[in-house]
Amino acid sequence: MIDSTAFGAGILVGGILGALVVGFWIASRVRTHLQAQLSASGERAQRAESLADELRRQVQQHSLDLDRIRQDLSETSQARAVAETRSAEAALHLSEQKTLLSQARQELAETFQALSGEALKQNNEAFLTLARSSFETLQAEAKGDLAQRQQAIDSLVKPLQDSLYRYDDQLRQLEQSRQAAYGGLDQHLKLLAESQQRLQSETGNLVQALRVPAIRGQWGEITLKRVAELAGMVAHCDFFEQESITVDDGRLRPDMVVQLPGGRQIIVDAKTVLAGYLDAHEASTEEQRLEGMRRHAAQVRSRMDELSLKAYWNQFAQAPEFVVLFLPGEQFLGAALEHDPRLIEDGFLRSVVLATPTTLMALLRAVAYGWRQERLTEHAEEAGRLGKDLYERMAVLTEHLNDVGQALGKSVLAYNKAIGSLETRILPAARRFKDLGVSSEKDIPMLDPVELVSRKALPVDSE
Prior knowledge:
This protein folds into two domains: about 5-40 and about 210-375, no CATH class; about 45-205, Helix Hairpins (Orthogonal Bundle), CATH 1.10.287. About 75% of the residues lie in helices and about 5% in strands. The chain has helices at about 5-40, 45-115, 115-210, 215-230, 275-280, 285-310, 310-315, 330-340, 345-350, 355-435; strands at about 240, 245, 250, 255-260, 265-270, 325, 350-355. Strands 1-4-5-6-7 form a five-stranded mixed β-sheet, sandwiched between helices. The protein starts with a helix and ends in a 28-residue tail after the last helix.
């Protein structure tokens, strides 16, 4: 049988060593955990800000598209201006040609008038006819050239005009999209402001509630009970809450007494030290924050000294010479260690072990494992007792079966003797009735002796 007391002491030492290892590990990482928990309250604001940045990026992209369209529109307008300039130049050139033709006609007329004699008169009509024909030909060519130029200008300007119409439509659509995007951005910013306001209000209410000592104490006890439940230590089964004991100096009331295998006990006292910690996180300057953290470390040390003076191990006979000071959050111990690194060492010197939910969870799981082993030991002892009782009952049953076998053997022997007497002394006389003429429908049957022998049961302890 396992020595329960020695086993419980071993479990206790192992739990304390595990708690020390986890405690030092938490002290090295607590600052990162604190920053993560502080940033949790602004997580929704960050998500909303990310959404706002995405909307701004979309608006910026729309603005870039709008600038590109405006640039294309400017280039198209320039091309149209060039085409219109060329058309104006062609029209001016045609007008100049008409002017030159008119001047040439006038000069020819003056020249013909200056000519003298009958030859001029004879050739005047022919020359005028030729000149008129030449002028009409030149004018027709000029009109054809102007029509071709106008057609070329129209073929160049019409695609540009269609492109301008399309750009105008796209510009209107982009403007509508931009207005809708700005409207959605305004709505999201409004929701972000409302969420931030609600978050600040809820945070303020929580901080104000935690400043009340009674609420802080209840929160610490609830956290302690939750840790015990997660570790498998069911309330009022393996541990007791609100246990109290009266001494000469007053009444001592630890928050939890953990029962160990073998009747040993661990005393746990929860202390929710938050005043300095909350002041530090509400500080507006770095100096105020540092002052609040130093005050928080001093408050933790003060609670540790007070708990050491209570000396619970003198009041609970089965408790070891130390008590567990439970802080309901890793960040509280980490902030205190940052400004008072010797808290853990000084706590051991004063028989006080500082614990957080993680370290207490490790200790309670070790105790729960010890209880499981204790129950297995008890079950093994009970199984041994049941086996011994069953063995004794099997031995008695075997003796009874042997007695039954011996009785059966005697019955068979008596039966065979009765058959022998029947066949030798009674049946011969009975058969003589048949010789005397006494008839019967049935004949006397022959009886066979029993030759089976009952088997003797072996003792239970035989091999």
